[in-house]
Amino acid sequence: MNRNTREDSREYLLECLKLRGELHTFLRPGDQIFLVKGERIDKKGRLHSLRILIGHCDNGKISFDDITLLAAVLLDLPMKEAELPVEGSGLVLVERLAHRLFPAGFGCIGKGCPSMDHFNGDNDWTPYLPEDQRRGADGQLCRCHSSEHWHIDGRHALVGYLV
Question: Which domain holds residue 98?
């Protein structure tokens, strides 16, 4: 797609927003991304192929969804035979994908939250919940959630594993 004209840029942006919406149905902050390393592509061994999978557990049965194509389009990366050619471990792709999906940050998920804020002195693990959703049947705000615990850096919303 030629992105030099205003219409093409708008179409590209709409396509990215649509893909972001599709990935939001699969991915939430704290989800685990599995990077499956493939064959080496170059002779020096720096470049190799990679697939991006997310795992689900339903009734004790584990299944994986391949989101390589969605991630490639959203990150504007070339694909080669259903895999991404990458240098290094590819874990930087997890940060880039998380940043694209959560550009304004994300609400704390509580215990197990992957935000680097928790490793840099933020010892508050109170899960985020918007204030309009925190009211109980009696109309009182619950104290087990916070409407203020928002992590502004979305790059660490997802957890990546190289397998």
Answer: 6-162
